[in-house]
Amino acid sequence: MTTDYAGQIPTSKLQEHAEVVRKNNVNWKSYLQGQMISSEVYEFISKFDIAKPEEKTLMLQNNPTQFVTVFRMLMEGISRDQTLQYVLTMLDDVLQADKSRVEIFKDFARRNKENVWQPFFHLLDRDDKFIVYQASRIIAKIACWSKDQMERKHLQSYLVWLKEQIKLPNNEYLLSAGRCLQMMLRINNYRIVFVEVDGISAIVQVLASNPSFQVHYQLVFCLWCLSHNPSLAEKMNRGNIIPTLADVLSDAVKEKVTRIVLATFRVSY
User: Fold this and answer.
1) Residue 138 lies in a domain
2) Where are the beta strands (DSSP E) in 42-194?
3) pTM
């Protein structure tokens, strides 16, 4: 896989494993010979896989519909975890390189009267956790970078799912779930729905369990985002936020955690 992102220092288990996935080689020919993909899919993905970044850009500009069609067929038709990991990582890198590319998926779904979220939501039920959280990362990017915000029904489902993920005990992908939540709560409409699904109490519960400093930072950042909406800040004041933040502040070993707690206090109180 040719990408601009190989070699970056990983900051979470998801990114760490993505570095390994990028170094894999998929034998697309074997999928063609086994009749698991069509010749059209093979021609596109085998070329796209080894293309340089500027070549990928041209392929996306010239064949946006084919790009979405191929990746959706791969996501829905490939059962082998290792290959699906590779496909999702490739797709995530494509979106990361240019945020506007999320519109390719939105435009395709709109033209075909399809649900842009279904192929990714379907992957949230997989057993392989890398696949689950890589799909979640892509969902968050499309939801946050698209011109049109996520529809309420799907938004509610996704935020409930994220809320449950941060509460999972010993979740080795907790940082990835937290990162998705950080992205989502930058958008005011998403903040409102998160509070409606009792997201604040979930954050307080996790903060009280004394997680790592990075999780502390992520979740207090989420509270800081929520505090920018006056009505939500008022609801936060009625919760158990102050003593929880005070505990985080007293235990903080990293300056960035201290800063984000104090920033939340300044906005909220």
Assistant:
1) yes
2) none
3) 0.93
Q: What one-character DSSP code corresponds to residue 101?
A: G
Closest CA to 214 of 182, 250, 187: 182
Within-domain flag for 237: no
- Residue 34 CA to residue 101 CA, distance in Å, equals 31
For 244-257, how does the pLDDT look when each residue is reduced to its tens digit (9 = 90+)? 899 999 988 889 99
pLDDT in tens, 176-217: 999 999 999 999 999 999 999 999 999 999 999 988 899 999
Q: Is residue 164 part of a domain?
A: no
Structure tokens at 195: 């509070």
How far apart CA 148 and CA 112 sit, in angstroms, is: 17
Q: Is 159 exposed, middle or buried (0-12, 13-18, 19+ CB in 10 A)?
A: buried
Is residue 257, in this structure, part of any structural domain at all?
Answer: no
Distances (CA, A) of 161 to 89, 132, 185, 201, 217: 21, 11, 14, 15, 20
Is 119 within 8 Å of 76 (Cβ atoms)?
yes
Q: In total, how many domains does the chain have?
A: 1
Token couple for 32 = 């063609």
- Give the range among 106-110, 170-174, 202-206, 247-251 with minimum mean pLDDT: 247-251
Distance CA 20, CA 89 (A): 10
Tell me the CA end-to-end span of the chain in Å, nearest whole number: 49
Dihedral sign (CA 150, 153, 155, 161): negative
Q: Give the domain range for residue 44.
A: 1-148
CA distance 24 to 19: 9
Measured CA to CA, the distance from residue 230 to residue 183 in angstroms comes to 20
